[in-house]
Amino acid sequence: MSTMVSPAVSAGYHHYNDYYYPSGDSIIRVENTLFKIHKFPLVHNSAVFASMFELPSGDGNPEGLSDELPIVLEGETAEDFRAVVKYIYAPPIQVQIQSIPAAALPEMISVARFSHKYAMDHWRSWALKVIGLHVTNLDLLPKEYLQPLYSLFILLEVGPSTRARILKRWCDMVEKNNLSIIPVLAAADAGEDREGLVAVYCIEIRRWEKGASTSAQTLTRNGVSQIHFQRMHSGHTSLTLAWNRFRTHEPPAMFQGTHCAGGGSAEYHTTRCIPYSRTQWVEAIVDAERVYPHVTQIASRLSHVGKRLQKNNMDASTLKMATCFDAVIKRFNYHVQEPDTSLENHFFPCELDSTESLRRKQSVRFSRTLEVQLVPSTGH
Ligand SMILES: [Zn+2]
Questions:
Q1: Centroid of ligand 1 to alpha carbon of 252 (angstroms)
Q2: 260 CA distance to ligand 1 centroid (A)?
Q3: Which of 10-14, 48-52, 145-149, 227-231 has the lowest mean pLDDT?
Q4: Centroid of ligand 1 to alpha carbon of 275 (angstroms)
Q5: Per-residue DSSP letter, 338
Q6: pLDDT digit string (tens) for 299-350?
Q7: For a tag on the chain, would you pick the N or C end, based on fewer CB atoms within 10 A?
Q8: pLDDT (tens digit, 9 = 90+) per residue, 237-254?
Q9: How far does the centroid of ligand 1 lie from the alpha carbon of residue 277, in Å?
Q10: What is the CA(270)–ligand 1 centre distance, in A?
């Protein structure tokens, strides 16, 4: 009698042998897999299981006592539940945070995801601690873990800075190996992660700049939605305009002075300081474009310009000239601190929350100042 194949098993379900304990008091089915385990550790670790097992059994034929009438966990994967059961039953030495190898990361992701949903707070924080140890150096992490880790951090709404690092690493891999942006774009989109989306848009823009004209067509064929293209195009245009404001043959007027900040005469200022600052400026802009060839690197370019101006000012032939140019550098540094360099604003200009709206106003004010002051410079 007991050797007969049970109807449940013959119906396509199978026992998970490692976790089908003869002494178990609860049969749980996840997908096609039947687990026979003990109620106590589940109830003890999870508020959700506790209330699940408290439900009245009703007609005297309670769920969970046979393969034919198991407790069914809908929407879960057998893999996630297996990982939870494995560690709940593991001896203490095997759950020491320091002793879990990187190869167990998929199990940790399973435990974190399942315990988040089933209010198993202890196990959730345990899994996150193990994950935390393994993501300190992402260079050592096998690349196939980046996507599930990123999605986990989105789902659990934890560790925004770690999540951003994981996404950055993932984007770096995609760009370096010339992989499709679609998986990373889809993950950032699903997580409503604007910073992440911007990072992906920037990869695509750099590909355009390198002449990869076919990639847009490929993306459309693969179902990338129109909104992403619109943002990429408008972001690219906005960044290019922002950079071109600096890319003049003169230092923008706001960075020049009408009188000599080094105490020189008007003539000295016109014949010495202004040509000097013009040369310094053009060289710094050209050098920034050489070191950071893409417009998506606008923040790095501006910071490079500032540093280079500062460094090269040591070459000024007189103290007066150096002091005068120092004032130009100070004004430049002050103005590029304005959040106009925030990449996100270039891609999401129309959907502003209150903080962004404020930032936007500031950057508009900055642009206006620039326009107005540029006018007198045409007299040179
Ligand atoms: Zn001067």
A1: 15
A2: 3
A3: 10-14
A4: 10
A5: S
A6: 899 989 989 998 888 777 788 999 998 888 888 888 776 554 488 889 987 5
A7: N
A8: 999 998 888 887 666 665
A9: 9
A10: 7
CA of 317 relative to ligand 1 center, distance in Å:
12
Average pLDDT, integer, range 162-176: 94
Ligand 1 center–CA 303 separation, angstroms: 24
pLDDT at residue number 316 = 74
Q: What is the pLDDT of residues 71-129, one digit of tens each?
A: 999 999 999 999 999 999 999 889 999 999 989 999 999 999 999 999 999 999 999 99
pLDDT of residue 69: 86
242 touches 340 (CB < 8 A): yes
- Distance of CA 263 from the midpoint of ligand 1 (Å): 7
Spacing, Cα 333 to ligand 1 middle (Å): 18
Task: Provide the pLDDT confidence category of residue 236 given band limits of 50, 70 and 90.
Answer: very high
- Residue 25's identity, in one-letter code, is D
Q: How far is the CA of 353 from the centre of ligand 1 (A)?
A: 43
Higher-confidence residue of 110 and 255: namely 110
- State the distance from the centre of ligand 1 to the C-alpha of 379, rounded, in angstroms: 17
CA of 331 to the centre of ligand 1 (A): 14
62 neighbors 92 (Cβ within 8 angstroms): no
- CA 29 to ligand 1 centroid distance, Å: 81
CA of 259 to the centre of ligand 1 (A): 7
Distances (CA, A) of 62 to 9, 34, 118, 177: 19, 16, 21, 55
Q: Give 84 Cα–ligand 1 centroid separation in angstroms.
A: 71
Distance from Cα 362 to the centre of ligand 1, integer Å: 30
3-state secondary structure 246-283: CCCCCCCHHHCCCCCCCCCCHHHHHHHHHHHHHHHHHH
Q: Are strands 33-37 and 14-20 parallel, antiparallel or unpaired?
A: parallel
Distances (CA, A) of 77 to 112, 148, 208: 13, 14, 40
For the chain, what is the mean pLDDT?
A: 83
Q: Which amino acid, residue 183? A: P
Neighbours of 252 (CB within 10 A): 20
Distance CA 154, CA 150 (A): 6
